[in-house]
Specification:
This protein has 15 helices and 19 strands. Helix content is 39%, strand content 22%.
Length: 503
């Protein structure tokens, strides 16, 4: 599920014009090639950066934008105006460009050569105003883009380009993502509903429904050798409770869980799905709710949403793709219960079963316990705590006239107790700026109880995603106040009303 980087490219496109003569244009091309090579060698940028010849005319600009839009391996372009590139030349190209764009506002040299600077140097190094001309045109055209300012050799600039490159990788995944909705959403639940047609138009991913019998068909085709191999993998990877070990009283539960995992994986692979949902109300002939199956599939990179939550399933998959190769994991999550004390309030995030072991601290325990709902056999699940450290919770909701992304920055903490009787994976976090403000803002924003929780990504990733998708973003962080947050919500209502009618 993570073989999404190797063949992807980001094109580096430099703008200029014929005004400066061939010698200057050769220098522009040479400098741009060196910058592209430098970015391509950066440890912070995981996607291949491909140098493209300098564009100097409206026809050249339009042609490179058409090529980028049509090339399946090109997932975005970085633009830079080394000299002054009259921006009316860019109108048609920017109009036809369908790939995300990052505007790198840099210059080849870091410092002014005080003793030798002359007008030849000035004519060559005009990014300070060439990029402003280009920026005006994109603003005039209401073109969403990432703007990165600073010298191209600095860590800060390369880190920002790396974040953006990971986001466009996730965006590219969304363009082709297929979400399998196994059963419907949990009955009478509002937030897991939404407009799947509009979602496909806005984000690219498709959502279609399937029955649990589709999984059972694959379960019935499992070989004894496949089952034996997976059971051995469970035994080697996790700490099995005594009841689940060979000859244990609940061994059959582990066997059934393994069958469900094998059948579900086979179904997803055959259909080319990158994300899925299920619900305890539509299990059909499945003997237990997929617990360890959903957890392990998420750890492999699949997106997941409980109770039919297809929006969160797609979001988890996109964030996992962005997360590739980074420390820390990403998981489906739910705000479950609170820890209120006079000194401090915390959230316990968890779910019935399906928390991804990519956020596990240490070796998970493989256990079986009653679920209490759904009317099926006791499901097998991985139980663990999550490590302390910064993280984000992200919610994607359908507001009726638009989609909204909501982010709450949090700090995960070590549990204050051992939790010996809690048979689920869990994480404890301190919501910024405090639980009172964070929960109030989240509820005012309409944030879902399901989220994508990530210890690897930051708010900047989600900001870039919202810009590329053209959707609303609300951020709850250590600077949030309820009064200003309400003002932002109200202003956004007016903005998106005008935006929708203006397009």
């Amino acid at each position: 599920m993570y073989d999404t980087i190797a063949d992807k490219e980001i094109w580096f496109v430099t703008g200029s014009q014929h005004l400066y003569g061939e010698e200057t244009l050769r220098q522009v091309a040479s400098n741009a090639q060196e910058i592209a090579n430098g970015l391509n060698a950066s440890a912070y940028i995981p996607i291949k950066i491909v140098f493209k010849p300098t564009v100097k005319t409206p026809a050249e600009i339009t042609n490179i934008c058409l090529q980028a839009s049509a090339a399946s391996n090109c997932i975005g372009i970085i633009t830079w105006m080394h000299t002054f590139s009259p921006a009316k030349m860019w109108i048609k190209g920017l109009t036809v460009l369908t790939k995300p764009l990052c505007h790198l506002h840099t210059q080849f040299n870091a410092e002014i050569p005080w003793d030798s600077i002359d007008m030849d140097f000035m004519n060559l190094n005009q990014s300070a105003h060439g990029d402003r001309e280009f920026g005006f045109m994109m603003s005039r055209m209401r073109k969403k883009r990432k703007v990165v300012v600073g010298h191209w050799q600095t860590k800060r600039v390369q880190e920002k380009l790396g974040i953006w490159s990971r986001v466009v990788l996730g965006w590219n995944e969304l363009q082709h993502l297929k979400v399998a909705r196994i059963g419907d959403n949990m009955r009478e639940v509002a937030v897991t509903e939404g407009d799947k047609v509009e979602a496909q138009m806005r984000f690219g991913f498709s959502v279609n429904g399937y029955d649990s019998s589709d999984i059972v068909t694959h379960i019935n085709a499992i070989s004894d050798n496949q089952l034996k191999t997976l059971l051995q993998e469970y035994e080697e990877t996790y700490t099995l409770t005594k009841a689940l070990k060979n000859q244990g009283e609940k061994r059959q539960s582990l066997i059934e869980a393994a069958k469900i995992e094998l059948g579900l994986r086979s179904f997803l692979e055959e259909g080319g799905f990158g994300a899925f949902t299920d619900t305890f109300e539509n299990l059909g002939e499945l003997k237990q709710l997929p617990g360890i199956a959903a957890q392990r599939l998420m750890a492999e990179g699949y997106g997941f949403g409980g109770e039919g939550d297809w929006k969160t399933a797609a979001l988890v998959r996109a964030l996992k793709v962005m997360n590739t190769g980074l420390e820390g994991g990403t998981s489906f999550m739910e705000d479950y219960t609170y820890h209120f004390t006079p000194q401090k309030a915390y959230v316990m995030g968890s779910h019935m079963l399906e928390i991804c072991p990519s956020i596990s601290e240490g070796k998970p325990s493989c256990e079986v316990h009653p679920l209490g709902i759904g009317g099926k056999e006791d499901p097998v699940r991985l139980v663990f705590n999550s490590p302390a450290g910064p993280a984000i919770n992200v919610s994607l909701i359908d507001m009726g006239n638009r989609f909204r992304l909501i982010v709450n920055e949090v700090e995960a903490v070590k549990p204050m107790g051992e939790l010996p009787k809690l048979p689920v994976a869990r994480v404890i976090w301190d919501a910024k700026p405090d639980l009172d403000t964070a929960a109030t803002a989240w509820i005012l924003a309409g944030g879902a109880h399901h989220t994508a929780y990530s210890q690897a990504l930051t708010t900047e990733f989600i900001e870039d995603l919202a810009d590329i998708a053209g959707v609303e973003l609300l951020v709850i962080d250590d600077k949030t106040s309820i009064r200003s947050f309400k003002d932002t919500i109200n202003a956004n209502e007016a903005y998106y009303h005008l935006f929708q009618h203006g397009n």
